[in-house]
Amino acid sequence: MRSLPYFCRGPVIRGFGRGSKDLGIPTANFPESVVDNLPADISTGIYYGWAQVENGDIHKMVMSIGWNPYYKNTKKSMETHVMHTFKEDFYDQILSVVMVGYIRPEKGFTALDELISAIHSDIEEAKKKLEMPEHLKLKEDNFFKTCRSTTSNQILNGHRL
Ligand code: ADP
Ligand code: RBF
Ligand code: MG
């Protein structure tokens, strides 16, 4: 995939509330504006990379892009599970991510426990892969260091943030 690593940023919106309730794995959802800006060669599926909430620490993440075939969603979503235990929810806060690698396509599992164990193995794979030097260096990228204030006029991937 030519577009990897892919950097993007946006506010966390409310989804269906299924991530944590059904699966025990919360996923922070991006709005349509971020989903619609994905380059054409970023296919649906499961990715891993780094994530940061506002100006906080940078954590490992796994992300699902697509229609969640298990739930038969009609809208394409982009959901990030941050590998960190947060004290509070962070709806409306700015999530910055860099997608660095691809794991697998989305699957339409027949049972919920199959979906959950697939996500757990994605998390294990992401943890391992992100220790590679070429991936570790993206954690230090300036993208995560830029001072972001609401008055600044930053442009990312052609978009004013
Ligand atoms: P929704 O359907 O609204 O996205 P989820 O059940 O998927 O609901 O929960 C996602 C929300 O949980 C996020 O928007 C965020 O505020 C919160 N959250 C807490 N911890 C995490 C985490 N480690 N990764 C992602 N989101 C988290
Ligand atoms: N949904 C699917 O229907 N099929 C999948 O293969 C799938 N894989 C996922 C992998 C990861 C790492 C994550 C975080 C989510 C995945 N999901 C998948 C999405 C899951 O169904 C979604 O997070 C919940 O529906 C909550 O919105
Ligand atoms: Mg979610």
Task: Explain what this protein looks like in three dimensions.
The chain is of the alpha+beta class and 161 residues long. The chain has a single domain, classed as Elongation Factor Tu (Ef-tu), domain 3, CATH 2.40.30.30. Helices cover 22% and strands 29% of the residues. It is built from four helices and eight strands. The chain has helices at 18-23, 32-36, 112-129, 133-139, and strands at 6-11, 28-29, 45-53, 58-66, 77-82, 94-104, 155-156, 159-160. The strands form two sheets. Strands 1-6-3-4-5-2 form a six-stranded antiparallel beta sheet. Strands 7-8 form a two-stranded antiparallel ribbon. A hairpin with a 2-residue loop joins strand 7 and strand 8 (159-160). The protein is globular. The mean pLDDT is 89. Riboflavin is lined by residues 15-16, 18-19, 25, 27, 46, 62, 64, 68-71, 79, 81, 106-107, 115, 118-119, 122.
Task: Supply the key terms.
two-stranded antiparallel sheet, Riboflavin kinase, 6-stranded antiparallel sheet, binds adenosine-5'-diphosphate, Elongation Factor Tu (Ef-tu), domain 3, single chain, globular, binds riboflavin, 4 helices, flavoprotein, alpha+beta, metal-binding, binds magnesium ion, 161 residues
